[in-house]
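Case study.
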Amino acid sequence: MWYFRSPQIVYGPDSLSFLQTIGISRAAIITDSTLAASGIVQKVIQSLPENASSKVFSGFSPEPDFLQIKSNLEGVNAFRPDWIIGVGGGSSMDAAKIIFAMYEKPDLQVYDITPLSPLGLRKKSRLIAVPTTSGTGSECSWAAVISEREEKRKNELASPEILPDYAILDPEMVINLPRQQTVSTSVDAITHAIESYTSSWNNPYSDALSEKALELILGSLVQVVEGNGDIESRDRVHIGASMAGLSFSNSQIGMAHALGHAFGAIFKKPHGTSVGLFLPEVVALNSRASRERYDRLNRIFPDSFREGNLQSSLKKLFARIGQPLTVKEAGIGRKEMESNRDALVSLAMESTGMLTNPYEAGTDEVRETLERCYGY
Amino acid sequence: MPKFPSEEWARQYVEKLNSSEAYRDSGKKWEGDITFVIQKDEGNPTDSFLYLDLYHGECRKYLYSANPDDVPKSEFRYIGKYSNWIKLIHSEIDPIKGVLTGKFKLEGSMMKIMRFSKAAKDMVNTATMVPFEG
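After joint prediction, the assembly is written out as follows.
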C-alpha cells in the first residue's frame, strides 16, 4: 500500500487569476525581502479578490532558520489569515509550509513536523504555493527544509499535511528569472527527476512524472538559459520542474541530495548548484544498482547532449549551461573542503536521502564519492 | 529454525546485528534504547516485547519477554501487529512506509529518529536475515 499525493495544480498563462475564485478573505503572503520589494508579490496581491485583505511577511533569508519562522509567526497569528500563500523559491514556500503548520497548531514544535505522526492541520486556514523559480518543486511536495545556523545543518522536515492545497504555476512569475537562478533551479529539477526515478520507493506515478519532467525540461532548458526562450519554453520548464517535484514528493530523493544538503549548509551555496554538483558521480556509483533505469532516462536526453551513459550526458549538459562539475569549480578551495570533509560526510549520512538511495552506500563510499567531485 | 517471536530469534537477531558492518557504520553515533512491540493477532496469541539497548553501532543488551513489566522503559517503541512484523521481516513492508501507512506506530523523538533513518533501515534489514518459523 502506498499513496500518490498532489496539490490541485493551476498552470499556464494567467493562472494567478485563479486566486479570485476561491473565496480568500485574509491572505498572509510569505516571501523574501527581495521579492517583496519587486513587482512579483504585487502581481499576487492584485490577483486576490477585491474585498480580500492581505499582509506580506518577508523577514526570511534565502535559507530560513527557526528564529526567522518564530519572529514572523507572531505577526501571522495576529493577522489571523484564512489562507497562507508562499510566493518565491523553495525557501519562501518551505517557510510558508512551516508557518502554516505552526499557525494551525501553536503548541507544535517545529521538529514535530515529521511524516511519522499526524498533525491535525487545516482547522483555520489553507495553503497555496506560487513558485517564482522553476526547480525546487516545493509547491508540489510535503517537505520543507529549515536551517540550523549554529550547527551548519539543513533539517528536512516532512508531513503530508504541509502539502499545499493549491500550486499555481504561472509562467509570468518566472519569465524574468536571472540566468544563474535559472541554471541552479533547473539543475535541482533534473536532480529531482533522476533521483526519484531510481529511489527505492519509485512507483508508476513517479516514473511517469520523472520521464515527462525530463522531456519538458531538457527540450527547452538551453533555450531558456541562453535567453532565447519565449513564454512557452519557460512554461514547459516550469511545468517540468513541478512534475519533477511531484515525482520526488511521492518517491523521495537520493544521495545527491544528501550530499548537496550537507554541502549547501556548510558552504552556503545554492541548493540546486549543490545537488547538481554531486549528481553525475552519484549516478556513477548508483549504476551498480540502477543501470537499466539510468539508461532509460539517458534515452530522453536530446541528441545534442546524449552520450553513452547518463553520467556523461549530465556532464555535457551541465558544462553547456554553466553548472559547476567540481567542488573547485563551485569556488571551494581544497583546504576549506578538507577541513569540512568529515562533517559533510557525517551530515550526508544522516540525511533521509540515504534511506531511499538505490545503492546502499556506507560512510566510506559517500566520502569517496565526495572526493571524486573535488576537481583539484 | 527459531520461531518468531521468541528468545532464540531475539538472540540470533542481536548476534547478526552486532556482526553487521552496515549497522555498525550507520548506527555509530546512535545512543538510545528501543523496544520492538509485536502485538498479538490471529497469527500469534500474545503480545511480545524485544528490548534493545543500542550504543554506537552495537547492541549492548537485549531482553525478550511476553510480559511488558519485564522490559525496561525505552526511549523508542516500534509497534505493530504480528502479521505486519512477519511482512516486515520478509521485506514486504518498508519500515518507514509501514509507519506512514499506519501498519506500524513509532513512539519517541521523531527529530532524533529521522537523523538515524539509515540505521533504522539497517536494523530492519538485519531482521530479514534471521531465518524463522512463522
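Observations recorded in class. Chain B has a mean pLDDT of 93. Chain B is about 35% helix and 25% strand. We will return to this complex in the next lecture.
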